[in-house]
Design a protein that fits this description.
- The complex is a heterodimer of chains A (about 600) and B (about 290).
- Chain A has four domains: about 1-80, no CATH class; about 90-210, von Willebrand factor, type A domain (Rossmann fold); about 215-310 and about 480-560, Immunoglobulins (Immunoglobulin-like, Sandwich), CATH 2.60.40.10; about 315-475, 3-Layer(aba) Sandwich (Rossmann fold), CATH 3.40.50.880.
- Chain A contains twelve helices and 33 strands.
- The two termini of chain A are about 40 Å apart.
- Chain B has about 290 residues and is an alpha/beta fold.
- A six-stranded mixed beta sheet of chain B has the order 6-5-4-7-8-11, with helices on both faces.
- Among the domains of chain B are: about 40-75, no CATH class; about 80-210 and about 260-290, 3-Layer(aba) Sandwich (Rossmann fold), CATH 3.40.50.410.
- In chain B, α1 (about 5-20) packs across α3 and α1 packs parallel to α9.
- Classes of the chains: A alpha+beta (about 600), B alpha/beta (about 290).
- At the A-B interface, β2 and α2 of A face β9, β10 and α8 of B.
- β2 (about 30-35) of chain A pairs parallel with β9 (about 220-225) of chain B, so a sheet runs across the interface.
Chain lengths: ~600, ~290
């Protein structure tokens, strides 16, 4: 055993005044009373004392000297040889993933709170030569505090740590911890609930498990998209994964901007997945929120959100000599505000211009759809016709989604020769482009090189779908999936926004006010979000308006975090504690002093023993 | 601070007035005696016998009935009040507060008695009568009495009530009210002494005075107790349990005294030194008026 502060033994000199005061105290106080006859009566009633009671004064002095000895001993900082030779190096890997939000069975606390308490105990056990670092294990793993012997810094760091909604990445965290103490004899303390991580850890990683196994089920998928058939219809795909050992049931509710759209009764079998596709009809956009009230261990994964973009109407100008099918198909599209004319406007004032047959040499700016062009333009030339063309190649594209033109009868098709770079989406076996797209800087041009008057295309269901796809693509409003974004991943969102966005946006979590702001980058086509740690709907407050624009919905959609059944086993950590119970030796010495002090005070000064 | 100052005298006057108003006809002085004599209040007739004083013949009756009858009158007697003041050492403990209160009470009671034309005498005692203020009457004597009381000191030896009573009954010219002001911390007890006073046709009234520290001692720990009168020493480790036992014993002592006085129809006042003397006098007069009258 050695001592960190041997000079503290100088305090032993306090024994001298203690003995002096004791001797002074031993001088009996002389009190003159009116009569001792009452005290005589009392003395007669008091039983004779035991021998050790007569020696209690000496015992009191011995106890006081023992108190002083223990205090001096604790001030001297005793260290056992194995820890005194070298300071310990600890790296605490604290699991801050979503599953740590689960309630601790039988208590009102969370697993995370219990984990914090254990880290605090480890900090309590540090002595002057020990060092500790703290690494968080939620994705992305971070070193929050490097190796330091200062308990205050460690505690300060600990106070700033909050539990995130992200899945864990304990492997990365442990690797990071190993790199931190490379070439050092160090202990890595992994404090986790053991859920969603590997079962076995390398030697030297001491696993400290918190929490009890709990049954849980959560929403793992929430996706919304506009229907391909009907521009106003939108669909929701929802999946609930059970990690429970028992059957769970509850009500599933779906809302759009707080308005309840549907409520379903959900029964999730143990270990199974429940999924459904729900269909709604609305041009309005907003935040789609799904929730299920299951009596399970983790509440955070019983909610999910996704953003449904609004479908604003598109103004379309149709220039035709009277093509009835084309006019009716466009008029039947609920999103299209149709204007029919027989003259090509000099300037395109509508959002989309549809030209039927006649085309000017220079096409107007903006998105243009050309149906069966009759003449050359600056983009293409016509070099004859191909009789009874058959579809030879069809490229998968947003325009050709759900469209097959294999069986369409076409008597002839003009041989178009693109003069500018073009995407030929459908091509005849003879090499005539039947559907092609010119991606102009001033607006795309889509050419449907199939005659509507002499083919049976207008009679096919493919025709309204193809035109709908074309209009949606021209309006930059494809019916792509809009799913909620998982926590802990950087995402790129490609979406149209009605507001003009700045290059850098500060997004606020509307669902979780305590979540930190997120800095997103907008490059006129897509929005890039860094990995965020808290789920919820992130909105952008325009500085010059009161409007709040939902930008992204981040969801705790993780199969691994939904399971609250630990897969990792605990590894005994007694060997690294400074003393029994994780306390240093001086702590026990002081505790002994306090107990002895209490006994001495009660026994001698309160005279319980007398 | 002097024991008897101007304020004290004013309060005595007030006490005297209050006692007369409140206890008219019940007090010590101006009381009828059973003896017939030369008073002014008619009591009875009796047959004239030779040698009787002619001045008391009822001539009106003789004129009507021709019979010689002698008028008899109720004789008025003044009361003898004896104040027995304890001057033993036990009265001097705790700063002498008990002795001060006892002297103030003595002066107050004496003044009331003197105001009512009674005779008073003060006997300072310890193991016998130490000093005596001879039987006297008249309010003017209160100053001399105060001087006497001022000169007294509680330095006497142990309290011996039997010796006090023996000497007192020999010195008292005639029976009267005997007010005993003491802490009654007497090894020989007080019962036989009070009984003897009663036997000698005195009307005893006991005023037991103790200090708050005696009723509830704040002693704890190792102490050496010294008896102020006998000098007896006793080493004790006083515990809270023993303090409680002491309080119980002391309370038992007072209860026995109260019960003894009740049984013997003896006036009794028990007080601690926190009570003002004038309040105590009024309290005594109210509770003990019947016995005092």
């Amino acid at each position: 055993m050695s001592f960190l502060n041997p000079t503290a033994f100088l305090w032993s000199a306090l024994a001298v005044p203690i003995v002096i005061f004791f001797l002074l105290k031993m001088r009996t106080r002389r009190v003159t009373v009116g009569s001792v006859m009452f005290w005589q009566q009392v003395a007669e009633e008091t039983p004779p004392r035991a021998l050790w009671l007569r020696l209690r004064h000496v015992m009191s002095l011995l106890v006081q000297l023992l108190l002083l000895l223990l205090l001096v001993f604790s001030l001297a900082g005793p260290e056992f040889h194995d820890t005194a030779k070298r300071g310990r190096t600890l790296v605490v890997v604290l699991d801050t993933s979503a599953s740590m939000q689960a309630q601790t069975a039988g208590t009102s606390g969370r697993r995370f709170n219990e984990a914090l308490a254990r880290v605090n105990r480890l900090i309590d056990g540090l002595n002057g030569q020990d060092e500790m670092a703290i690494v968080t294990g939620a994705r992305p793993a971070e070193v929050l505090c490097g190796l330091t012997p200062h308990a205050g810094t460690l505690r300060e760091t600990l106070e700033k740590i909050s539990c995130s909604d992200a899945p864990n990445d304990l492997e990365s965290a442990v690797t990071m911890a190993s790199l931190l103490v490379r070439d050092q004899d160090a202990d890595i303390h992994l404090i986790t609930d053991g859920c969603g991580s590997q079962a076995d850890w390398a030697e030297g990683v001491l696993v400290d498990l918190v929490g009890e196994p709990l049954d849980n089920a959560g929403i793992t998928t929430l996706q919304v998209r506009r229907s391909f058939r009907d521009p106003l219809t939108w669909q929701v795909l929802v999946e609930i994964q059970s990690h429970s050992r028992v059957e769970l049931s509850g009500q599933f509710e779906i809302q759009l901007d707080g308005e309840i759209l549907d409520v379903l009764e959900v029964i999730v079998q143990p270990g199974s997945r429940w999924s459904d596709v729900l269909e709604f009809r609305s041009s309005k956009g907003g935040v789609v929120t799904a929730s299920v009230d299951l009596a399970d261990g983790l509440r955070a994964d019983n909610f999910a959100s996704a953003i449904l973009p609004a479908r604003p109407p598109v103004s379309v100008t149709l220039v035709t000599a009277g093509q009835w099918f084309l006019q009716q198909v466009l008029a039947a599209n609920a999103l299209v505000e149709l204007t029919v004319t027989d003259l090509v406007p000099g300037q395109n004032e509508s959002e989309i211009l549809v030209l039927d047959g006649d085309v000017p040499q220079d096409l107007p700016t903006g998105p243009v759809i050309v149906v069966q062009p009759q003449g050359p333009t600056s983009l293409w030339n016509i070099s004859g016709t191909e009789q009874t063309p058959l579809v030879g190649r069809q490229q998968e594209d947003e325009l050709t989604r759900n469209v097959r033109l294999d069986n369409v009868l076409m008597p002839q098709a003009a041989r178009l020769e693109p003069l500018a770079p073009a995407d030929v989406l459908i091509e005849s076996a003879g090499g005539t482009p039947l559907l092609l797209r010119f991606p102009r800087p001033e607006g795309p041009v889509v050419v449907l090189n199939i005659g509507l008057n002499d083919s049976d295309l207008p009679l096919r269901t493919a025709f309204p779908i193809l035109l709908g796809n074309t209009i949606a693509a021209a309006a930059d409003d494809a019916s792509e999936l809009w799913s909620s974004v998982p926590v802990g991943q950087a995402v790129q969102i490609r979406r149209r926004f009605s507001e003009r966005l700045p290059e850098v946006l500060l997004l606020k979590n509307e669902t979780d006010q305590a979540a930190p702001m997120v800095r997103a980058v907008w490059d006129d086509e897509s929005l890039t979000l860094p990995p965020v740690s808290h789920s919820g709907v992130y909105v952008w407050d325009a500085p010059d308006s009161q409007s709040r624009t939902p930008i992204a919905a981040i969801q705790m959609a993780s199969d691994s975090e939904g399971s609250l059944l630990p897969v990792t086993s605990a590894v005994d950590r007694q060997s690294t504690d400074a003393g029994p119970g994780g306390r240093p030796v001086w702590w026990y010495l002081v505790l002994t002093v306090l107990i002895l002090f209490g006994l001495e005070w009660c026994g001698f000064h309160r005279r319980w023993l007398a | 601070m002097p024991l008897f100052d101007d304020d004290f005298l004013q309060r005595l006057d007030y006490l005297s007035l209050v006692s007369r108003r409140a206890f008219a006809g019940q007090m010590m002085a101006q009381r009828r005696s059973r003896q017939l004599g030369s008073g002014i209040e008619f009591a009875d007739h009796r047959q004239y016998t030779a040698g009787d004083d002619f001045r008391y013949l009822d001539w009106n009756l003789y004129a009507r009935h021709g019979e010689l009858l002698l008028k008899r009158f109720q004789e008025e007697q003044d009361l003898h009040v004896y104040l027995l003041l304890d001057c033993s050492c036990s009265m001097a403990v705790d700063g002498g507060v008990k002795f001060d209160l006892a002297r103030q009470l003595t002066a107050a009671l004496a003044y009331i008695a003197l105001s009512d034309l009674d005779r008073i005498a003060v006997f300072a005692f310890a193991d016998g009568v130490l000093h005596e203020f001879a039987l006297t009457r008249g309010k003017a004597r209160i100053v001399a009495l105060m001087d006497f009381l001022n000169q007294l000191q509680a330095t006497g030896a142990g309290t011996s009530l039997p010796r006090l009573v023996s000497e007192f009954v020999q010195r008292a010219p005639r029976p009267g009210l005997a007010v005993l002001l003491s802490d009654l911390f007497a090894p020989e007890g007080y019962q036989t002494s009070i009984d003897r006073l009663r036997y000698q046709r005195f009307e005893p009234h006991v005023v037991q005075i103790h200090s708050p520290q005696e009723a509830a001692p704040g002693l704890l720990g190792d102490v050496e107790l010294v008896d102020s009168e006998s000098g007896e020493q006793r080493r004790m480790t006083v515990t809270e349990q023993q303090v409680r036992a002491y309080q119980k014993a002391f309370e038992s002592f007072l209860t026995e005294l109260r019960q003894f006085c009740l049984d013997k129809a003896v006036g009794c006042s028990i007080t601690d030194t926190s009570v003002a003397y004038d309040d105590l006098v009024l309290q005594m007069l109210r509770s003990g008026g019947a016995s005092l009258s």
